[in-house]
Amino acid sequence: MIKKLEQTTQFIQKQLEGFTPELGIILGSGLGNFAEQVENKKIISYSDIPNFPMATVKGHAGKLICGTIGQTKVAVFQGRFHYYEGHNLEDVVLPTRILAKLGTKALILTNAAGGINKDFAPGELVAITDHLNLTGNSPLIGPNPEELGVRFPDMSEAYNLELNKLLNDVANELNIPLKSGVYAGVLGPAYETPAEINMLKTLGADMVGMSTVPESIAANHAGLKVCGISCITNLAAGISKEKLSHDDVKDVANMAMEKFTKLVTTVVKKWGQSSI
Question: What amino acid positions are annotated as catalytic residues?
């Protein structure tokens, strides 16, 4: 694990020629166009990075884009890996661990999610305040090399309060409606049944998706501050009578791109000017 991580990180560092990102961003389904906001770009295709798996899901371009947004140095992963694709969790969280090795201080995780909370509507953005790990697995299972983090990391503030405050302050400033909620991370790739959605509702989940949780765990393990944003792309099974499809998920995420881009771009710029 460590050898692969170091080899991959060294390759990326060589490509970046001394550029050190301060903030990482992982883009979810249908949100990849945000990468257009990055200036002074250095683009590295996943296919060129040693030990890197390929993103196989539609809406995940498979590119690492490094550069600046305002004065903030960023590394943007345009496409993520999912456990349901057959990747092991070590590979799913490889981008997160690379960000930590590169010296980033914080990570913004984004995703497309199904709305469980009846106050949520498709196209709305939600700040993740906490999560439920219902995948049945963790990227921390197995040997724990000390350079990755402590054996038993604290998860009582999995989503950093200061980053969430910044996110909410920026949303208010820009008049962008932003809800808050608990994200349920499930295995997938089948969408949930109505009975499963009722269970998740009982457990306190406001939205559900098939990503983010492993990356959040790995980031907290590595000492990164984490912020999470869900784009509600559909109402969950049983709440809406509509059949669920990935194409619809991408379409709704694309429709929310303008406000998502405005919000995240401003957050990144203000984060670079803050001490968070």
Answer: 29, 60, 82, 84-85, 112, 210-211, 234, 246
Q: Which whole-number Å values give the CA distances from 77 to 34, 40, 140, 267, in the listed order?
A: 10, 16, 22, 17
pLDDT tens-digit readout, 222-231: 999 999 999 9
CA separation for the pair 219, 208 (Å, rounded): 20
| Contact indicator for 215, 80 with CB cutoff of 8 Å | yes
> Which residues form the domain of 230?
2-272
CB-based contacts of 88: which residues, under 8 Å, 6+ apart? none
Q: Give me the number of domains the chain comprises.
A: 1
What is the rounded average pLDDT for all residues in the chain?
91
Q: Round to whole Å and give the CA distance between 67 and 141.
A: 33
Among candidate residues 21, 9, 80, the one with its CA nearest the CA of residue 50: 9
Rounded to an integer, the average pLDDT of 24-29 is 90
Does residue 70 sit in helix, strand or coil?
coil
C-alpha span between 212 and 192 (Å, rounded):
17
CA angle 262, 98, 40 (to 5 degrees): 45
Please write the tens of the pLDDT for every residue from 124-173. 999 999 999 999 999 999 999 999 999 999 999 999 999 999 999 999 99
* CATH of residue 152: 3.40.50.1580
What does the block give as tokens for 53?
A: 């798996």
pLDDT (tens digit, 9 = 90+) per residue, 190-211?
999 999 999 999 999 999 999 9
Q: Are 201 and 93 in contact (CB under 8 A)?
A: no
Helical ranges in 39-130 per DSSP H: 89-92, 94-102
Radius of gyration of the chain (CA): 17
Crossing angle of helices 257-272 and 161-174, in 10° steps, is: 120
